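[agent] plan:
  1. take the single chain provided in the ticket
  2. run structure prediction with default settings
  3. attach C-alpha cells to the ticket
  4. add a short note for the reviewer (M.T.)
[agent] executing step 1
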Amino acid sequence: MYGSGQGLRSIANQLNAEGFKTKPGNAFSSVAVKTIINNPVYIGKIRYNVRENWNEKRRKGTNKDPIVVDGEHEPIISQELWDAVQKFYKKKAISAPRKFDGIYLLTGLMRCPQCGATLVAHRINDTLKSGEKVVRRYYICSNFRNKGSRVCNSNSVKADFAERYVIERIATVVQTPKLLDDIVVSLNKSRSKSVAPLQKELAAIERELKTLDSQKQSTLPSTKATRLIATCWSSALTN
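[agent] step 2 finished; step 3 output follows
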C-alpha cells in the first residue's frame, strides 16, 4: 500500500473499513501504520534500544542509532520492498516550510459530539474570486484526522466562530460578579473535595508519629535511672 504511494491516513482508513484492529484491539491510526512500516521485525530483524532517556523524554527520546540484529524468525516481506518503502518514507518525511503561523486557542479543549475525541486544528488553503489566497481555520475530530471516516466524521467547526463565542462568554462571565462568585464557590468546593483525602491521610500520619514518639519515650530510661547508670560506670572506672 504505502510503497505504491498510498498515504498513512488512507491506509488506516482502509484497514478500519475492512474491520482490522491493532494488537490491543483499537482502530488503526496513521501513527499505528507508521510504526508498522518502520519496524524491521517484518524483514526478520530484531531492534533494541529504540528509546533513550526514558525517565526524562518518554516517547520523545528516540535513539537515532538503535541496535538492529538478525532474528531467528522468517521475514514476511522482502528486503527490496523494505528498502523501497523506507526510501519513499524518508522522501515524504521531509518537512515543508511552514507557511501558517496562526494560533488555535481551543485545540484539545473541545470534544467531538459524535465520538468524544478532542477537536484538533485543521486548515484549508483557498483562493477567492479576486485571486487572493486565504487560510480557512477549522477544528475537526482527531479520530477522523488520524483514523479516517470509518471511525468518525470530521464534525468540523469554524475556528473563528468557536473562538469568538468562547471569548464572548468569558467576557460575559468577567463582567457579571454573581457568575464569578458562583464559579469561585464551585472551584472551592472541588478543591475541598480533592484536599479532604490528603488532610485525612496527613492526620493519620501525625497520629502514627505521636504513637511512635510515645513508644520511643517509654523505652528510654528515666532521668533518675540514667544518673544511676552513670554513677555505676564512674564507680567501675575509679575502681
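[agent] step 4 note for reviewer: The first strand starts at residue 45 and ends at 48.
[agent] ticket updated
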